[in-house]
Design a protein that fits this description.
Elements lengths: L1 H9 L9 H5 L4 H4 L2 H4 L3 H11 L6 E5 L5 H10 L4 E6 L2 H13 L6 E4 L12 E4 L21 H16 L6 E5 L10 E9 L2 E8 L1
Parallel strand pairs: 1-2, 1-4, 2-3, 4-5
Antiparallel strand pairs: 5-7, 6-7
The protein binds S-adenosylmethionine.
InterPro entries: SAM-dependent_MTases_sf (IPR029063)
Protein name: Methyltransferase
Organism: Leptospira biflexa serovar Patoc (strain Patoc 1 / ATCC 23582 / Paris)
Length: 207
């Protein structure tokens, strides 16, 4: 994997196009096939970066950062203009994201192995969520079978998520890809809604 990466990096310049195929090829094999279902596509990170370029950004927090694809590619695009933090409760995924950081020269990105529902990070200007709670509902394309699947648990988690987000200060933005788990987010208005080829992308603003 390292040799493959060095070969590829040797041929690229900062700003060169990165594809999902290239990015995912540096993941352990079993996590590559999950990519279309679990990790943000490169084009969606690019859409997010287009939006952030016209924003005053202090920090972006990925709530459920998985193998780190969103955070690491955003850092590649933004060249560390702001803090990028990823929170992931699966230690295996957290470790993969840490291992990928030096490979993408993403030294500024901070990953934490924590549950964002319990340790919600306050004070970020922007949060990102690729429907992290949905996994408690779904049977197909699960990351693993370590978490309970139950509609009750899902509803309880979504409510806890809403409560945490409600405490964000005015002007805070939440960017969602495939939603956050619910359809109504008390205390927020929808600022942008795009039907991207691969799914719905939205920006919510705390009012
Ligand atoms: C759909 S994946 C998105 C991964 C990453 N944000 C990306 O876009 O590439 C959702 C991730 O959220 C994580 N997750 C779910 N609930 C969580 C929680 N309460 N705290 C931390 N991570 C959580 C899952 O383990 C999974 O890695």
């Amino acid at each position: 994997m390292r040799n493959q990466f060095l070969k590829w990096m040797g041929r690229m310049n900062v700003g060169d196009l990165v594809t999902d195929e290239v990015w995912d090829s540096f993941l352990p094999h079993s996590f590559q096939s999950l990519s279309p279902y679990q990790w943000t596509p490169i084009s969606v990170v690019e859409t997010t970066w287009d939006f952030l370029q016209n924003e005053t950004v202090t920090s972006v927090v990925d709530l459920g950062s998985g193998v780190g694809k969103f955070c690491i590619h955003l850092s590649y695009l933004s060249q560390d203009q702001f803090s990028i933090i990823g929170l992931e409760d699966r230690s295996e995924l957290f470790q993969i994201s840490e291992d990928l950081k030096p490979k993408w020269n993403a030294h500024g990105v901070i990953f934490r192995n924590t549950n964002f529902l319990e340790n919600f990070p306050r004070g970020a200007s922007h949060y990102y969520a690729f429907n992290p709670l949905y996994e408690t509902m779904k049977g197909n394309h699960s990351i693993d079978s370590k978490k309970d699947k139950s509609a009750m648990l899902f509803l309880r988690n979504v409510q806890q998520f809403k409560n945490q987000l409600y405490q964000c200060k005015m002007g805070t933005k939440l960017i969602t890809y495939h939603g956050f788990g619910g359809s109504v987010l008390p205390g927020f208005r929808v600022l942008v809604k795009k039907e991207l080829p691969l799914g719905e992308w939205m920006v919510w603003e705390r009012i």
